[in-house]
C-alpha cells in the first residue's frame, strides 16, 4: 500500500469516527455538554497554572532571577537603563505579534469574548488562546501594568469555543462552552470557583439559565481543582486581618465609599479609552505603539516601580493599613496612568488586577481621611481598602455580584459581606446612572457594537434565511404584460413578486402590487393592458440575501432600504430560490420567544381573568388614531352578560391589534369596521368585519400560512403579527381563528376563546 493510499484511508477512517462522535454529541441531552464542560474545566485549570508560571519565567528573563517572586525589590536594584529597556523590548515583541497574527489579542480580552458570545455564536479562532497567553505573559512579565483575568478568560473561552466547533455543535452550545472556559480560567487563577461562575453568567453570557448554569459550574469547579494540583493547597490570596465594624454609623461611610469608588471607576474607565484614542491618533506604526507605551510606563516607574505588573504585594500593604495617605493617593493616580499606557497603546492584559489595585488605594485613602475626622466610630484605612477593591471594579464593570463574590473568595472574610454589598451596589448603580457603558462594553461600542440591542437580536441570530423563506415563489417574466401581472396579484394575494428573464431565468428585480395599481389608475385610457409590458414597472434590488445568511442581515437590509420583501438567492449558483418578508422574520421571532411545549407556552401564571369589554376597549383605543387618519369609524357591539375569559392579555391584545390594524389598512377611507363580541356555549366569540376588497375564496385558508404576505409592517418592533402567528396564539389558548365570510364588500374574521364561568355563582 502506497503512502498516499494509507494517508487517504486513515483520513477517511478519522472523518467517519469524527462524524459519528459529533452526531452522538449533537443528538444527546445536556449530559454530553457537561462532559465537554468537564474537559474544558481541566484545560482551563491547566492553562491558569501554566499562565501563572509563564509570567514568572518571563519576569525572570527580563529582570533577573527572583523577579518572579520579589518583583519590586529586584527592580529597584537594577540600573535605570535596564528598567527602561525591559518594558520597551516587551512592547517591541508583543506589537508585531498582535498586529500581524492575532489582532483579537489586543487589549484586555473580555470584550472580544463578549463579542464572540453575542455576535459570532461563541466562535473564537483557535489560534487566539495560545497567542493570547504568550503575548499577555510578555506584557505583564516585562513590566506592563495589567492583570491576568482578561487573558485567562480569553484563553479558557478560546479552548471552549474550539472544542464546540470541533464537535460541530450549535451556536448556543458553543456559547455555553465558551462561558465554561472563562469560568474555569477565573476559578483556577484566583482560587475562586463561585466567582468564576458568576463572572461568566453576569459579564459574558448576561443571563442565568439552568442549561447555562450546570456546565459552567462543572467547568469552574474542575478548573479550580486542577489548578490546585499545580499550586498546592491555597489560602486566601490576600493575608489580611479580619474586618471589624466599629460602629453602625460606618454603613453611611460605606455608602460614601461606594460613591467615591464610582467617581474613581469613571475616571479609570474613561481615561483608559481616552488614552486608547490618543494612541490611535498618533502617526506611528501601530505595531510599535506598545513599545511607546512601554517607554512611558518605564519612565513613570523609575520613581514609582510599584505600578509594574499586578501589584499584589503593595495592595496587601494597603489592606493591612500600613501605607500613609499621600502614598495611596500617588499609587492610585500612577496605577491609572500606567494601565492607560499599557492597554491604551495596544498591549495585552486584563483590567481586573489594576481595578483591585486602584480600588485598594482609593479605599485606603478614603478610609484614612474618614478615620482622621471620625476616629471613634470608624475602622482604619485597611477596612475601607478591602471594600474599595470590590467597589471600584463593580463600578467599572457594572458587575456588583461578581465583585462581591470574588472579593470574598480572595479574602475569605465573611464579615466583609454587608459593607461590600452596600458599596458595590451603590458604585454600580451610580456609574450606571452617569453612563450606560462599562469598561468592557465601551470597547465594543467604540466599534459600533451595542450589546443591549443585540440581546434582542440574539433570539434570532442563529436562524438562517433558508429556514424561514418562502421557497418556489410566484414569479413574473420580462415578457409578461400588465394584464398578466394584475391577474397574478389579484389571484395570489401577495404584495411583491420577483421578475425574471424569460430565457435565462436570471433575476431582474421586484414588482409591487401598489406600483402596478398606481400605473393602471394613471393610465385608465390604455385600451389593451395585455399589450403593455411590465419591464418599466420593475425596480432593481441592489442588496442580495443568500440562503445561508442570518435573518439579522435580512432585517438590516429591510430596515435600511424600507423594503417589505427581499429576493433570496442560492449560495451556489446565485439563482433565485425564494423570498423573505418582514412577516417571516416577525413570525420567526415570535416562535423563538414562545418556543417550548404547548402547555408551557401560556402557563397559568401568564394568564388572568378579564372582562371582554375591557380587552376590546383597550385594543380599539390603541388603533383609534390610525382609524381617525382615514376617517374610519369603529363600531363596537358587546352582548349583555358576556362571561369573562382567562387569557394572556398581552398576547391576545397583539392578535386584536393585528386584526384591527389590518382591517384599517384595507378598509376604504370613511368606511366602518364592526366588532361584535358574543357568547356561544362555552366559548366567547369576537368578530371583526372590515370594508376592504375581500379575500378570494380559494386562498382564505392560505392567509394563515406562514408565508402569506397579507400583513405588511413598517418595522419588526411593531404590534402587528402575521396571521399565522395570530392563529398560533389563539390555538395555544384552546381557541380558533378563521375567515367567516369575505366578499368585495369586506371580510369578517372571527376568533374564539374559552369562556370562564365562576362555579360559585
From TrEMBL:
Transmembrane segments: 30-51, 84-102, 176-201, 213-231, 251-275, 287-305, 325-343, 355-374, 386-409
Any one GO BP annotation for this protein: phosphorelay signal transduction system
Tree of life domain: Bacteria
Domain Histidine kinase: 599-757
Locations listed in the record: Membrane
MF term (GO), any: chloride channel activity
Family matches, as InterPro entries: CBS_dom (IPR000644), CBS_dom_sf (IPR046342), Cl-channel_core (IPR014743), ClC (IPR001807), ClC-type_chloride_channel (IPR050368), HATPase_C_sf (IPR036890), HATPase_dom (IPR003594), His_kinase_dom (IPR005467)
Name used for this protein in its record: Multi-sensor signal transduction histidine kinase
The organism of origin for this protein: Halanaerobium hydrogeniformans
Amino acid at each position: 500500500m502506497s503512502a498516499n493510499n494509507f494517508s487517504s484511508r486513515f483520513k477517511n477512517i478519522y472523518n467517519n469516527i469524527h462524524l459519528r462522535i459529533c452526531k452522538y454529541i449533537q443528538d444527546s441531552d445536556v449530559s454530553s455538554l457537561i462532559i465537554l464542560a468537564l474537559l474544558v474545566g481541566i484545560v482551563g485549570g491547566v492553562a491558569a497554572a501554566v499562565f501563572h508560571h509563564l509570567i514568572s519565567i518571563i519576569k525572570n528573563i527580563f529582570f533577573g532571577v527572583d523577579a518572579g517572586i520579589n518583583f519590586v525589590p529586584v527592580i529597584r536594584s537594577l540600573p535605570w537603563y535596564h528598567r527602561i529597556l525591559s518594558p520597551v523590548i516587551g512592547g517591541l515583541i508583543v506589537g508585531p505579534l498582535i498586529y500581524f497574527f492575532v489582532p483579537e489579542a489586543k487589549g484586555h480580552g473580555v470584550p472580544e469574548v463578549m463579542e464572540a458570545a453575542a455576535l459570532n455564536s461563541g466562535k473564537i479562532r483557535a489560534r487566539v488562546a495560545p497567542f493570547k497567553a504568550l503575548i499577555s505573559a510578555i506584557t505583564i512579565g516585562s513590566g506592563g501594568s495589567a492583570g491576568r483575568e482578561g487573558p485567562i478568560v480569553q484563553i479558557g473561552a478560546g479552548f471552549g469555543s474550539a472544542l464546540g466547533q470541533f464537535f460541530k455543535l450549535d451556536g448556543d452550545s458553543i456559547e455555553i462552552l465558551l462561558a465554561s472556559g472563562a469560568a474555569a480560567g477565573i476559578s483556577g487563577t484566583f482560587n475562586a470557583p463561585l466567582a468564576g461562575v458568576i463572572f461568566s453568567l453576569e459579564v459574558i453570557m448576561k443571563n442565568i439559565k439552568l442549561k447555562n448554569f450546570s456546565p459552567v459550574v462543572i467547568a469552574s469547579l474542575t478548573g479550580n481543582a486542577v489548578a490546585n494540583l499545580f499550586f498546592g493547597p491555597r489560602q486566601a490570596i490576600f493575608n489580611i486581618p479580619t474586618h471589624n465594624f466599629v460602629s453602625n454609623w460606618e454603613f453611611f461611610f460605606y455608602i460614601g465609599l461606594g460613591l467615591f469608588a464610582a467617581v474613581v471607576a469613571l475616571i479609570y474607565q474613561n481615561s483608559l479609552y481616552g488614552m486608547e484614542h490618543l494612541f490611535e491618533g498618533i502617526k506611528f506604526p501601530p505595531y510599535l505603539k506598545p513599545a511607546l507605551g512601554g517607554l512611558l510606563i518605564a519612565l513613570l516607574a523609575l520613581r514609582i516601580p510599584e505600578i509594574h505588573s499586578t501589584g499584589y504585594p503593595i495592595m496587601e500593604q494597603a489592606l493591612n493599613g500600613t501605607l500613609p495617605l499621600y502614598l495611596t493617593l500617588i499609587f492610585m493616580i500612577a496605577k491609572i496612568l500606567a494601565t492607560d499606557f499599557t492597554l491604551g497603546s495596544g498591549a495585552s492584559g486584563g483590567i481586573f488586577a489594576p481595578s483591585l489595585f486602584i480600588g485598594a488605594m482609593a479605599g485606603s485613602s478614603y478610609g484614612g481621611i474618614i478615620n482622621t475626622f471620625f476616629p471613634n466610630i470608624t475602622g482604619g484605612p485597611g477596612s475601607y481598602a478591602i471594600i474599595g477593591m470590590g467597589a471600584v471594579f463593580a463600578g467599572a464593570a457594572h458587575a456588583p455580584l461578581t465583585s462581591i463574590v470574588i472579593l470574598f473568595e480572595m479574602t475569605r472574610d465573611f464579615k466583609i459581606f454587608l459593607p461590600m454589598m452596600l458599596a458595590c451596589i451603590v458604585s454600580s448603580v451610580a456609574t450606571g446612572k452617569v453612563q450606560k457603558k462599562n469598561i468592557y462594553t465601551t470597547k465594543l461600542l467604540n466599534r459600533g457594537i451595542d450589546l443591549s440591542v443585540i440581546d434582542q437580536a440574539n433570539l434570532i441570530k442563529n436562524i438562517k434565511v433558508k429556514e424561514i423563506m418562502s421557497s418556489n415563489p410566484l414569479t413574473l417574466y420580462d415578457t409578461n404584460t400588465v394584464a398578466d401581472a394584475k391577474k397574478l396579484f389579484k389571484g395570489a394575494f401577495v404584495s411583491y413578486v420577483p421578475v425574471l428573464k424569460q430565457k435565462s431565468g436570471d433575476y431582474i428585480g421586484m414588482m409591487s402590487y401598489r406600483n402596478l395599481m398606481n400605473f393602471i389608475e394613471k393610465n385608465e385610457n390604455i385600451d389593451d393592458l395585455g399589450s403593455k409590458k411590465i419591464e418599466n414597472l420593475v425596480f432593481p434590488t441592489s442588496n442580495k440575501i443568500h440562503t445561508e445568511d442570518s435573518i439579522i442581515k435580512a432585517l438590516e437590509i429591510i430596515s435600511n432600504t424600507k423594503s417589505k420583501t427581499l429576493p433570496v438567492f442560492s449560495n451556489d449558483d446565485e439563482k433565485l430560490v425564494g423570498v423573505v418578508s418582514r412577516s417571516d422574520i416577525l413570525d420567526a421571532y415570535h416562535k423563538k420567544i414562545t418556543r417550548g411545549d404547548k402547555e408551557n407556552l401560556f402557563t397559568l401564571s401568564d394568564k388572568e381573568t378579564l372582562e371582554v369589554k375591557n380587552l376590546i376597549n383597550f385594543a380599539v383605543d390603541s388603533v383609534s388614531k390610525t382609524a381617525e387618519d382615514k376617517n374610519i369609524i369603529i363600531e363596537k357591539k358587546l352582548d349583555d352578560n358576556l362571561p369573562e375569559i382567562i387569557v394572556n392579555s398581552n398576547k391576545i391584545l397583539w392578535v386584536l391589534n393585528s386584526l384591527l390594524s389590518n382591517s384599517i389598512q384595507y378598509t376604504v377611507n370613511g368606511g366602518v369596521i364592526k366588532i361584535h363580541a358574543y357568547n356561544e356555549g362555552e366559548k366567547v366569540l369576537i368578530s371583526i368585519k372590515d370594508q376592504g376588497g375581500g379575500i378570494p375564496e380559494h386562498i382564505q385558508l392560505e392567509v394563515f400560512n406562514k408565508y402569506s404576505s397579507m400583513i405588511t409592517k413598517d418595522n419588526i418592533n411593531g404590534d402587528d403579527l402575521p396571521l399565522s402567528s395570530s392563529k398560533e396564539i389563539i390555538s395555544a389558548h384552546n381557541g380558533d381563528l378563521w375567515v367567516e365570510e369575505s366578499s368585495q364588500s369586506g371580510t369578517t374574521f372571527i376568533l374564539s376563546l374559552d369562556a370562564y364561568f365562576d362555579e360559585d355563582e
